[in-house]
Amino acid sequence: MLIFLMITVAGLGAFMSSTGIVAIFIPVVFNVAKQMKIPPGRLMMPLGFAGLISGMMTLVATPPNMIVNSELVREGYAGFKFFAITPIGIAVLLLAIIYMCLVRRRLGNREIAAGSDPHRRTFQDFICDYKLTGCARCLAICPGSLLI
């Protein structure tokens, strides 16, 4: 699961915002950890690493890649091709996967497996604590609106 998670996150993050991909995968990781009865920390650290490494995959993976490319072109140098840095990113991803596989037993050892702690706080607990029940609002933009 760790290898599949890292490859998937890095692959998607190569073409989308790495921060957005990590945010999308956080609930997925929590659900998977709960179903596998393992501490979520065992998958959260690899998730974060894969998100960071995804920035090394393509020209559009992170804004700094595009800024460096623009500056190179502005100074008269040949810019990067879209996949010019992909070999570096793949090598770093493979090293990270190997590293995570080697240390995975140490990740999240101090945590209680997801769902096994009866005192673990849930979103419903926070909603009640902060008196947010019934505070949700919905906004719809109708066809023909000036906001479109």
Give an overview of the whole structure:
- The chain is mainly alpha-helical and 148 residues long.
- The chain has one domain (2-117).
- Helix content is 55%, strand content 0%.
- It has six helices and no strands.
- Mean pLDDT is 85; it is low at 111-115.
Q: What is the count of DSSP helices, taking H or I runs of 4+ residues?
A: 6
Please state the CA-atom Rg, rounded to the nearest Å.
20 Å
Beta-strand content: under 5%
Unreliable sequence segments? 111-115
Number of domains: 1
Q: What's the N-to-C terminus distance?
A: 42 Å
Could you tell me the number of beta strands? Answer: 0
Return the average pLDDT rounded to an integer. Answer: 85
SSE string, helices as H and strands as E: HHHHHH
* Apparent shape: flat
Helical proportion, percent range: 40-55%
How is the biggest beta sheet arranged?
none
Structural class estimated from helices and strands: mainly alpha
